[in-house]
Amino acid sequence: MDPPLPPNPTLVSSIEDAIYEEYLPLPDDPESTLPPYEYAAIDAENETRVLILQPAEQFTDALQVELLHRAIAPAIAHYENANLLAYDAVSYCWGASDFFYGLECQRTALKFTHNVDSMLRHFRKRTRALCLWIDAVCINQSDNEEKAQQARRMGPIYARAEKVRVWIGDAKEKDRLPEMAALCRELAVFKKRLQKERWDVRAFCNERNAKEYLDNFLSCPWFRRRWIVQEVLLAHHLTVYCGAIKIPWTQFMSTVKVMGTKELFQPSLSRNAMQSIQNILAFAIQPSSLIELLELYHKTECSDPRDKILSLTGLADQCEDTSPRVTNVLCDIQLDSPIFKIDYDADWVSTYTNFARACANSGSGLEVLNHILYFGSLRYRNTQSPSWITDWSGNKVYHESLPKYSSWYDPISTEHDDISDNHYHCVDVAEQLGLRIPGIIYNPVQCIPAQEEDWRKGHFEC
Questions:
Q1: Where does residue 431 fall: left (phi above 0), alpha (psi -120 to 50 degrees), or beta otherwise?
Q2: Regarding beta strands 88-92 and 100-105, do their DSSP bridges make them parallel or antiparallel, or are they unpaired?
Q3: Which of 116, 233, 232, 255 is nearest to 181 (CA)?
Q4: Strand pairing class (88-92; 130-133)
Q5: pTM score > 0.85 for this model?
Q6: CA–CA gap between residue 229 and residue 223 (Å, rounded)
Q7: pLDDT tens-digit profile of 74-133?
């Protein structure tokens, strides 16, 4: 297999950046005479596009690609029979949204960002083409309907990739990436011995300035991006790339698990690095629903508030070949139901409202109410919204749950049999969207405790 360009992994990043910046055209380069690329329509429910990156001898050679339509295979095991082109999916941050025409695609110019430019140059091979799936290029970003359809298929796209390439960004000299890669390799080799002898871990890492390397590395925006959740959980094989350096995901995870131990390094790491560690370690938790994922990854970020929910919906696809990181299919709601569907023409308030309605109607009403405690009501930001709709645009601010449903009534009594299914319904009340909640009347409430802590725990006088 040909190594990625540039061939020397110890290339001084300042020299590389100087070459790179000299080559880059301005966003509206007057010398670009090729017509803009026009996307041909695809069957977005059953097809996607893949990018064929042509080889080149030099890092600074012009990027040349092709976009091909490809069926989304039913499962990885069916590749041989389906005769489909294998591809690597890319997980990355878009970076600054200054698109420019710099990518030659079948005698036309394709728009992309500076971060994608650098990524493609580092991935490019010398003697053979490379097949990639990159959302910013393979999806027509000006077509909201296609974006919605392809977002619905993100699960199969990442689950059926041969490999997921995690692109952190360009390597800067201060990041000390060669040292970080060496640290990951050494910790992977000596992991068992080091985990048994915690004092050896501290000495080992202090001797190599490991905290500084890890802190710089984990402060990269990729680790706080919400879209990576499904991209990592569904991947069968992951490799982390930063400039010309690459680190196997298993080695990187071993490093995070060892150095993320609270008593060793957490107090001295930056806030961004600590948040990145929490996000990474959460990958080991087996999710059971989209509602649970919204709580688990509440501090992850995305530029579009709609994507707080939509970026996780790929995990709800019923794939035959789900990754071992996902033990079951997250089908707590129907993503193609008339109540909730992925729609980039809808605003974020409608997205949150319809998602909450779908959850309530599918039996997750109590979880929806818990999330109002966690995140707050959407009505605080939009006075026209029902009070029971959660504002998922921010971080979790409250960490106690409502009592479990079984504690709301006497388990010996037979009077609650008719509501044992815990079924919530959305209803229209005076042209307002209401939530009908099952319950039993014990006695009228005579007073509500003055202390918020008491009434949140359900301590009322009757």
A1: left
A2: unpaired
A3: 255
A4: parallel
A5: no
A6: 10
A7: 554 444 445 577 899 999 987 666 666 577 888 888 888 888 888 999 999 999 999 999
| Residue 439 CB partners (closer than 8 Å, separation 6+) | 408, 419
**In this structure, how many other beta carbons lie within 10 angstroms of the beta carbon of residue 84?**
15
Strands (E), 87-221: 88-92, 100-105, 108-112, 130-133, 163-169
| Site of tokens 């509206």 | 28
**Which residues of the chain, if any, have pLDDT below 50?**
1-31, 76-81, 318-322, 324-331, 404-422, 428-431, 462
Query: Is 20 within 8 Å of 119 (Cβ atoms)?
Result: no
Domain boundaries, the chain: 1-317, 346-462
User: What is the distance between the terminal CA atoms of the chain, rounded to a whole angstrom?
Assistant: 75
Joined tokens for residue 383: 């006075």
Whether the Cβ atoms of residue 55 and residue 126 lie closer than 8 Å to each other: yes
Tokens 């053979």 -> residue: 128
Question: Cα separation of 378 and 36, whole Å?
Answer: 41
Alpha-carbon distances, residue 428 vs 341, 379, 396, 425, 431 (angstroms): 20, 17, 29, 10, 6
φ/ψ of residue 48, rounded to 5: -145, 180
Is residue 244 within 8 Å of 171, Cβ to Cβ?
yes
Task: Record the tokens describing residue 415, joined without a space.
Answer: 């009077």
Q: Quick one: tokens of 156?
A: 């199969």
Give the model's pLDDT for residue 273.
83
**Alpha-carbon distance 347 to 345, whole Å?**
7
Q: DSSP readout, 324-354?
A: TT--S---SS-TTSSS----TTS-HHHHHHH
Q: Strand pairing of 432-436 and 425-429?
A: antiparallel
Buried-state track 311-328, b at ≥16 Cβ within 10 A, e below 16: bbbbbbbebeebbeebee
Assign residue 417 a region: left if phi > 0, alpha if psi is -120 to 50, beta otherwise?
A: alpha
